[in-house]
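INPUT
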Amino acid sequence: VRRDRFAGKPLGIRGDAAKVSQKQLLRCYKGLDVTIDVMHDLHCTEPVPNQPLGAFLAISAAKFSAPPPQTSQTLTTLVERVAQHDREAFASLYQATSLKLFGIALRILKRRSWAEDVLQDVYIKVWERAADFDPSKGAVISWMATITRNRSLDEIRRGAHVVSSEDVGGVEDIASLEPLASETMERSEEHQRLTRCLNGIEEEKRKMVLLAYHYGTSREKLAEQFGRPVATIKTWLRRSLESLKECLST
Amino acid sequence: MIEPEDIDGIAAEIVLGTLPHDEYDEAIALKSVKLNAAIKEWEIRLAPLNEDTPNAVPSPDLFNKIERQLLLKPPAPNDPDRLLLARHAQRWRILALAACTALAIISGFALNGSPSAENGTRAVAVLQATPSAPAFLVSLDSTHATLSIQTLAATAPAEKDYELWIIAEGAPAPRSLGVLPSQGNRLVKLSSIDSSAIRNATLAVSVEPRGGSPTGAPTGPVVFTGKFL
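OUTPUT
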C-alpha cells in the first residue's frame, strides 16, 4: 500500500459497484482504504466534496448501485436500435456496458483521463458502426470489449502515453489475474474452457499471457519483470498461445 | 513479408497486445485477408478473459461529453437521427429557455441597446455544458446579420481558446465563427451565412489551441452547445 501517494488528498471511491458495502464506503470517507490494485473491491482516489457523512453515503450508494443485469439478448436489441441512431438505446447501452469497458481501458492505460478519452472514442465508434455488428460472431459485450482493448493498446503501442509508476495501479497486480474459484462459477462456458486450457500452461508462462492481455504489458516489460531475455519472452508467448489454440480446438 | 507459418503467431500477439509497434504497423499494412481472419479468431478465442476484468466507474460527466460530440456530427440527409436530434433540441430549448429567463431576471440582461429590436428577427441561444451553468449567450440579429456573443462564465484552459462553431441543418461540416473572448462581448458579422439557416442551427464551443483550430474543423473536445430558442 502506497498511502503516501495520496497523502493530504481527499478520497473518494472507485471499484466494482456490486462489491462496495456501506462499511467500505465509510472507510473510504475516512480515507482509510487505499489499495494499489486499480480495480479490486475498493479504491479511494476521487476527491470527496466537502459534505456531511450522511449525504456522502447516500450519493455514493446511488453512484455505485450497479445497473440492472443485461442479458446478451437485450444488449443485441439495444445495438440494433443504436444502428438506427436511437439515442435512448444508446444511453441504455452506455449504462449497461460502460463500467466493464472502463475497467478494461483503465487496467491497460492506468490513468483515468486517458481511459476516459479512449472510452469516448469507443462509444462514438459504436454509434457509427453499430450496423456492422454481427450477432453470429459473438456477444455485444465481447465486440465492445475488443474495440476498447484495441483502442487502449493502440494508445500505448504508439507510445503516446508513457505510464509511470506514479499512475494509479502502475504496479501490475499478478495476484488479481486469476479469479477466485467462487467467481469462476458465474463465468460463461467459453470462459471455463479457456481457463482449463490456460491452466494447462506452466504458471510463469500463463502469468505472462494474462499480464499482457489484461494490462497491455509489453515483451520488454515482461522480460524485466520475469528476468528473462526479450527473445525468450517472445518464444514463450508464441508457444503458450499455440498450445492454447490447440487445447481449445479439441 | 510475413511467412505463411508466421501468420497465426503474429495474429495471436496482435490480439494479446505484445507485438512491437513497428512489426504491428508492418503486418497491418499488408492488409492480408488471412491475417485479418486469424486476428478475428484470436479475438474470439481470448475474449472470455474480459469477464475477469473488474468494473470501474468513469466520471459521471463522460456520457454527456460523448453526447455532445455526437451532436457535432451532422446527420446525413435521410438519417433517422435528424428527427431524434430535433426532439433532443426541443428538450434543450425548454431547458435553455428556463436558464435564459432566470438569467434575464437576475442580471437584468435584456436585448437593450440594440437597434431595430422591433423589425429584426431576434433569437437567443444559451450555450452551456449543463442547464444550470450557462457559459455564453448568443443573440442573433437577422436584420443586420450579426451575432452578438456575450461571455457569461467561461474561462478557457491555459494556453487554449474557445472557438464557436455553427452546424447548420444539412451542412456537411461545422463552420467556425471564430475564437471567443474570455469576457465581455463579441460581434460576428454573418456575411456568408444565411441568417435564416442559422436560426435552426446548433451552436457548439470547442477547446482549441491559442488563436483557434489550425485545421478549420474542431480539434478539441466540445464543451458547450446550444440552439436558438
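end of record. Chain A touches chain B through 74 residues (CB under 8 Å).
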